[in-house]
Automatic annotation (TrEMBL):
Cellular-component GO terms for this entry: plasma membrane
Localization per Swiss-Prot or TrEMBL: Cell membrane
Principal subcellular localisation of the protein: membrane
Transmembrane regions listed in the UniProt entry: 12-31, 43-62, 83-107, 164-182
Biological pathway: Phospholipid metabolism; phosphatidylglycerol biosynthesis; phosphatidylglycerol from CDP-diacylglycerol: step 1/2; Lipid metabolism
Protein task: This protein catalyzes the committed step to the synthesis of the acidic phospholipids.
Protein's name according to its UniProt entry: CDP-diacylglycerol--glycerol-3-phosphate 3-phosphatidyltransferase
Gene source species: Alkalicoccobacillus porphyridii
Amino acid sequence: MNLPNKITVSRIFLIPVFMLFLLIDWPFGVIEFYGTELTVSNLIAALIFIIASATDWLDGYYARKLNLITNFGKFLDPLADKLLVTAALIGLVEAGVVAAWMVIVILSREFAVTGIRLVAAADGDVIAASQLAKWKTASQIVAISICLLHNVPFSALSIPLDQISIWIATILTIVSGVDYFLKSKHVLLKSK
């Protein structure tokens, strides 16, 4: 297993650790930021999520730089991303921070796009991620990070950036999903 794939696998292994800190109320105490309380457990969960998200950039960087792009990496990298984002969103619904319908929309798009990619791959087609899809992913990571941090430090300024960012992520998810379906309709309409 090469270095980029090891980094990707480490992202997957960070998911249960992240979830332990997100969902269990550990007795580490509470930090107060200008009237907003943030448990130390949630702060640790947010840091783990941010580090795990950064490994996505890191594994891609090394795969390209060292010319270590493999089929295993092409399969595992997007899977690791989806597992991390899915775990975080479901955890945020459990915590009452994000609306369940938004998470359903986001996850439905991910399942649908993955299905189309599988159909395309079976026919030997590769459908690359568009720039819009990359913005979607970035917006999801930013939104999840802000929600995990309970909108600190923006709550001190009375700016609901957590809710604004999750709305942006949801809208970009819908738009990028429509774009993806339009660009890949040839895969769905192909008959044998």
